Amino acid sequence: MQESVMQRMWSSAHLSGGNAAYVEELYELYLHDPNSVSEEWRTYFQKLPANGGLSTDVSHSTVRDQFVLLAKNQRRAQPVSAGSISTEHEKKQVEVLRLIQAYRMRGHQASQLDPLGLWVRPMQPDLTVQHYGLTDADLDSVFRTGDLNIGKEEATLREIQQALQDTYCRTIGADYTHIVDSEQRRWFQQRLESVRSRPSYSPEVRTHILERLTAGEGLERYLGTKYPGTKRFGLEGGESLIPLMDEIIQRSGSYGAKEIVVGMAHRGRLNVLVNTYGKNPRDLFDEFDGKRVEGLTSGDVKYHQGFSSNVMTPGGEVHLALSFNPSHLEIVSPVVEGSVRARQDRRNDPVGDKVVPITIHGDSAFAGQGVVMETFQMSQTRGYKTGGTIRIVINNQVGFTTNKREDTRSTEYATDVAKMIEAPILHVNGDDPEAVLFVTQLAVDYRMEFKRDVVIDLVCYRRRGHNEADEPSGTQPLMYKLISKQRTTRELYADALIKDGVQTAEQVEALANEYRTALDNGLHVVQSLVKEPNKELFVDWRPYLGHKWTPRFDTRFDLKTLQKLALKMQETPDGFVVQRQVTKILEDRQKMAAGGLPINWGFAETTAYATLLFEGYPIRFTGQDVGRGTFSHRHAVLHNQKDGETYISLQHLYKDQPRFDMYDSFLSEEAVLAFEYGYASTMPNALVIWEAQFGDFANGAQVVIDQFITSGETKWGRLCGLTMLLPHGYEGQGPEHSSARLERFLQLCAEHNIQVCVPTTPAQVYHMLRRQAIRPLRKPLVALTPKSLLRHKLAISTLEDLAEGTFQNVIGEVDALDADKVERVIMCSGKVYYDLLEKRRNDGLDNTAIVRIEQLYPFPEADLSEELAKYKNLEHIVWCQEEPMNQGAWYPSQHHMRRVATAYKPTLELQYAGRVASASPACGYPSMHAEQQEQLLQDAFVV
């Protein structure tokens, strides 16, 4: 029998025994009127997990009788069929129930959300009694309330409408009826209607809200005075964010959360750093003064900086992390999700109880940036879900200089995109801090209960321009005329507390003075900050710090163990029916493991993963079609032909092995790559891989490559070992299925920031992947992987190559040429090597050696010099590539090659053989492709 809500409540030791009757009485009072119990008990009762239905199996206690009554009310509220209506009053009863539903669906459209009063919204006709054939004469008639949670079964129409008006049309606009799940909708109805969306808060809570508002406003005033006109993207007009953040953290901590990861753009970031995370104001002032951060070659502006700290909550110590992020307004959101997933994996927290993501957005960016949709789309998928994200929109009603709704979006609200995943949206007037507190509590409780995303739309304004050097009245004259007269949120709330006798004017002034004094003295201003944090809550990066680049790294592995692992990978469970062609692949791999067949790419790659797992390295691998592999070479995920179930042998190598996670991603590049960057930058001991379906498709994630992967270390000191596998090669398949845009990565290379490799043998990919995990150096790896080489007759290796070899940055000539006769060296990377090799062998051109550069960055000048030194009579040195001249490695890397060539012989001239410059990465006609390929091969031997 399913355990009831009260049974679960009683399972808590301090609520059992002699206290049971007292608790029953409290709970009965709470069910009738939540404001009739203390805030502590109300919070406890609100956090009771829902069952999805109310148990009626036991009725011997007062509290359970109340559950029975509620269940009856719910049944009574079911729609009445037309045939059962016999009187005029019953007809009106049906219309009253329709009115109730209309308020739930449309009430937010009549709510008072805008502190400036600029929003002019027409009266919704279906929120009037007249719309339902009712008149003022019916206002004092008594009707059944149905499932309306107002504490009684019957009420006058006047009472019903007033309750609906108070609940749905004041300073909170609850937008939740688009949720399909009826349990979630009922949850919101109960929570909102039972307190009319305005619970009573104790004087202590209200004073704390004022203190947090004072901190939010106080920092902005202080910075405005100390650094006038300096950009800070202040929070003025949206100061309610500070008590909002405080409540999220404290309430999440009371649920047992251990980590909270936040991503946000510029607006209010400095305020959150100081007033939420506890950053020392003196450190912030140093940044305003232009002080450099040691160890960062470029650094970043202060409103891009991340931070971490620990704070104390009712549930214990919580680690807070604020992600670093660039100026791209929304790209940090999927990075946060990846970091959170890594932390959850580390804590064995698959549900998301212990690590909570929060993302903070601007209204125009939230509505306008496509990565927001992509991040929402990943929220419930297997490979990317994090147990629900609390999303906060700082809605200051203007995007830079654009504030007309018809210019900023095509939807009523900036947050409507969230409806695509049925996320509830809680619109709230930022000048009503108690309403902000209430929706924050709702958001946290909803996330913890249902493990889904929830959005808080904090409707506020921007007191200054886009930044403090900007004059906004030139483009928003009417808005800023109102803002100039608008009293601050703190002032309005302080007046309310003084009026209610909660505070005196002197106490309000004292709060402001105390905060300003703390800033003057450079003191921490977060009272809950833990000065000596629990370091177990941190990610330990110490083993990966301070390592230098090394040209070679030992990646050998015991041959017999390698063979055992390789054979284990080919096993399938009893009764598991594998597709016919896949069966052939597994049989061939068994022969490869035994030494009976040369090793191909798929065998070498998957064996690399097996050996790393054996040595204790977790692996995460995502991307479109990665289980099978776009080109059907991997088959790491097998599909049972009988029932469609899957089996991943890499997850079953031995007992208690590390995680091996492999997910076919949804059709996204930008959000998924950002997610994997966040994951890899939080899980340093794991091999984290993203593979593009075609290398060209990384174009859709260029912002992640530019602003995180290649520059995150020099800007923020953030190490990351992410691996990108980008299929690349000219096969006559047209412009968008040929090039991974190698040139773009090479143009971004500097200061040893990333690795760019183009492996050409199975053994090379094996050692490249092993090196990436085993070597403690954590740098992103960009690997241009082949397509036709996956099954090329010459692209093979041996078991000994895997067991004894290492990754070779440069591979010299493989044929037994007479070095004294060699007059020409052709340098190349990738698939074109095999075309050159076959042409040379066919044409008998034994005066030409072919050298492969397998790592293009950091460029292996010493290894290349060592190869050239073998040839004493060298007269010509050529770089050959398949890409057009303005693409590929020619322009970004020729200075490296030329430096090596001239060091060998000052008169040696580096020459080019390849396609002519082109605006397109490749041609789309197979015949033209073949002609171009033949020409560049010819040029390589004669230029």
UniProtKB/TrEMBL annotation:
GO terms for cellular component: cytosol; oxoglutarate dehydrogenase complex. GO terms for biological process: tricarboxylic acid cycle. Keywords: Oxidoreductase, Thiamine pyrophosphate. It comes from the Bacteria. Pfam families: 2-oxogl_dehyd_N, E1_dh, OxoGdeHyase_C, Transket_pyr. The keyword Oxidoreductase applies. Gene3D superfamilies: 3.40.50.12470, 3.40.50.970, Multifunctional 2-oxoglutarate metabolism enzyme, C-terminal domain, TPP helical domain. Its EC number is 1.2.4.2. GO terms for molecular function: oxoglutarate dehydrogenase (succinyl-transferring) activity; thiamine pyrophosphate binding. InterPro entries: 2-oxogl_dehyd_N (IPR032106), 2oxoglutarate_DH_E1 (IPR011603), DH_E1 (IPR001017), KGD_C_sf (IPR042179), ODO-1/KGD_C (IPR031717), THDP-binding (IPR029061), Transketolase-like_Pyr-bd (IPR005475). Its cofactor is thiamine diphosphate. Belongs to the alpha-ketoglutarate dehydrogenase family. E1 component of the 2-oxoglutarate dehydrogenase (OGDH) complex which catalyzes the decarboxylation of 2-oxoglutarate, the first step in the conversion of 2-oxoglutarate to succinyl-CoA and CO(2). This is 2-oxoglutarate dehydrogenase E1 component.
